Amino acid sequence: MQTQAIPPVLAGRDLMAAAQTGTGKTAGFALPLLQRLTMEGPKVAPNSIRALVLAPTRELADQVHESIRQYAEHLPLSTYAAYGGVSINPQMMKLRKGVDVLVATPGRLLDLYRQKAIRFSQLQTLILDEADRM
């Protein structure tokens, strides 16, 4: 999976991939995304994001964010997960500083947008994880 996905993502091209669980899909999009964000683009502005990963459930959002957080551990990038079922206020506070990579569920993303807690002016990359479930 990764050998086919990483080159187009590094080149900034669109990619659609389908594969079974355990084939490395998250690493296939996250590793080249993190490399691109590290090497190019301005520092993230307040209430802004540079990359958005949409996931259909909070469990998947948590899982994807944890993988991305681990991959980015020694990089000068910030990551965060936002989803419903928990208070929105801490999420709004975290976004005030800006986040390089936000993993979110669609409902919570809309809530944050309606509250003017998030802006998309710096958004460079959109990833729909398990788009068939949204």
From TrEMBL:
Protein name per its UniProtKB record: ATP-dependent RNA helicase rhlE
Protein's UniProt keywords contain Ligase: no
Residue span, Helicase ATP-binding domain: 6-134
Organism name: Pseudomonas syringae pv. maculicola
One GO location term (cellular component): cytosol
Pfam families found in the cross-reference section: DEAD (PF00270)
Taxonomy, superkingdom: Bacteria
A GO term, aspect molecular function: nucleic acid binding
UniProt keyword list: ATP-binding, Helicase, Hydrolase, Nucleotide-binding
